[in-house]
Amino acid sequence: MNTKNLYLAPECLGNKFLLVDVTPNYYSGSTRMAEPVGFRYAVCVPALSMEKLCVKIAGQQLMDAPAFEQPVYVAFEGLRVHPYVNINGRMALTASATGIRAINGKD
């Protein structure tokens, strides 16, 4: 079975995520670039028992990493979630999006 074109419905992960960290992404496919090609937004997913997920967004940095005193909940625009089997033989998820925005955590 070829899973290259298999994507999960983003609704499976819920509609809000807790932003944990923001780091530059230097990789385009498997090639390391000299300058960042985008940013990785590390989030905890409440719908998956706070499992961590990194979402790549190409282009400029859209949000800063949050201060630890104040939780920041976010929603993604154009979220695509792709399952794959990692080097340990376990299922993992990779994700990309077109945008990110802060939301009220009580929604």
Walk me through this protein's architecture.
This protein is mainly β. It has one domain: OB fold (Dihydrolipoamide Acetyltransferase, E2P). It has no helices and 9 strands. Strands 7-8-5-4-1-6-9 form a 7-stranded mixed sheet, with no helix packed on it. The model has no long low-confidence stretch (mean pLDDT 90).
Secondary structure topology:
Layout: E1 17-25, E2 27-28, E3 31-32, E4 38-45, E5 51-58, E6 72-77, E7 80-85, E8 91-96, E9 99-103
Parallel strand pairs: 5-8
Antiparallel strand pairs: 1-4, 1-6, 2-3, 4-5, 6-9, 7-8
CATH architecture: Beta Barrel
Number of strands: 9
Biggest beta-sheet profile: 7 strands, mixed
Shape: globular
Side by side, the strands of the main sheet go 7-8-5-4-1-6-9
Helix content: under 10%
CATH topology descriptor: OB fold (Dihydrolipoamide Acetyltransferase, E2P)
Q: Give the overall pLDDT as a whole number.
A: 90
The CATH class is identified as: Mainly Beta
Q: Which structural class matches the secondary elements? A: mainly beta
Rg over C-alpha atoms, rounded to the nearest angstrom: 14 Å
The parts where pLDDT drops under 50 for at least 5 residues are none
